[in-house]
Structure formats: C-alpha cells, structure tokens
Amino acid sequence: MSQGSCIVCHFKHYGELSKNDEALLADLEQSPTEVSADQILWQEGDSAREFCTLSKGWAYSFRHMEDGSRQILEIYLPGDIIGLREFAFKERLTGVAMLEDGVVCHFPHRRLINVFRESLTLSTIFFAISSHQQALLTERLVNLARRSARQRLAHLIYEMYVRLDRTKARQGNSIRLPLSQQHLGDALGLSSVHVSRTLTAFREEGLLLRSRQRIELPDPGALAREAEFGDAYLNDGIDHFFNH
Questions:
Q1: pLDDT-above-70 percentage for the chain
Q2: What is the distance between the alpha carbons of residues 49 and 90, in angstroms, rounded to a whole number?
Q3: Contact (Cβ atoms closer than 8 angstroms) between residue 100 and residue 92
Q4: Does this model's pTM top 0.85?
C-alpha cells in the first residue's frame, strides 16, 4: 500500500521510516477523493476540523482581498499536507483550491493525535513539515517585499524546480508547472501582463523555455543567479536528530 503513497515518499525525505510508520501514513490515504481543477477544497472561515494529503495534482492556498483581488500564499505539490497550520484554530485562515484535477485524502485531527501517540519519528516529521511550510511562507514574504519583478518570477520558478527534484518529479532540467500567468501574478503581486512580458524576456535571454505547462531551464544556475537564490530554507531534514 505504501509503495505508491505520495505522503510516504514525502516523509522519507525527512528521515528513515519503519514499516509501522509507513503503515500509519498509508492509513491516512485510505479515503481518496477525486477533485477537479479549480475546485475549492475549503474557504476562509470554514470550520477547521481536518487535514488532507494531496495524493495527486497541484493545489494552492489563497486569501481574497477587499478590492476583489486574490493573493496566492502557498503552492502545494503531490505528497504535501494541507491545513496543518490550522491544527490549533477553529476556522480556516485561508481558502484552498485545486490547480488541476487530482486526488486528496481527508483525515480528521483526532487521527493525527493517534499518529502522535504511535510514533515519535512521525511526530518529529510532522513538526519538521510545519517548520518547512513556515519557512516557505517567510521566503514568499521576502520575495514580495524586497525583490524586483524579474527576481520574484525567477525565484518562484527555481523554487519549484528544487522542490520537484525532491519528489523525483523533475525530468532533467525540465519541470511541469501547471500555473497560469494569472496564478503566477497572484502569487507574486504582479499583473498577468507583467508576468507575460517577463517570461518573454527570460525566453529571449535563454533563461527558460516555456511550452504550455512545461518549462525547461537551459542553465538552471543562471536562473538561480538571476533570482539571487539562497536554498537554506529548502535544506531541511531531521536525520541529525536520530544519529546522535
């Protein structure tokens, strides 16, 4: 069961799992629900009583602003846990929507308590994942506040490039990026027109090639330098806790 489990694969990045750990995680994916592109999983203010694992497809969290615009906060990849930060809250802090067709597995908070009781390793990894998600949000804030439009876009694309490599979903220097120009703009505080112009400039400069949902980075290092990318916030892992 766990061999094809996205969440098991994701957790193995953080540390070695026992057979019991894998079984506990796989059990969280026993109730898969098919969801479609643009489907809202929940809205801001909804009751927060469960998490979900993203087994297939991409998703994102968002806030609607008073002027009618939308700010995309997080981008979720297969294997990610959604809603973890709201464990201590009664209401959803953000909405979550699918970027494409996918599969999610919902599980109530009380089942996570059972995981905590059964496995110290998994408890540690859940805490590490929560820390990782906080680091992603912090970097997103810096990206929005202190980087140019070119740097913002380069930084987001290169971040996806690194994250997809972790989940073995990268093919050489090519990645699938199911984000429209509007999605990119909403994540980066830019208009879709500005995103389009910047992507065109990157193509003309040989920094990336885009064909529909696929992006190729001819020279990944050049894009990283354009973004002034520092990967410390992605270099997580907890192996050192268990090696002493």
A1: 93
A2: 7
A3: no
A4: yes
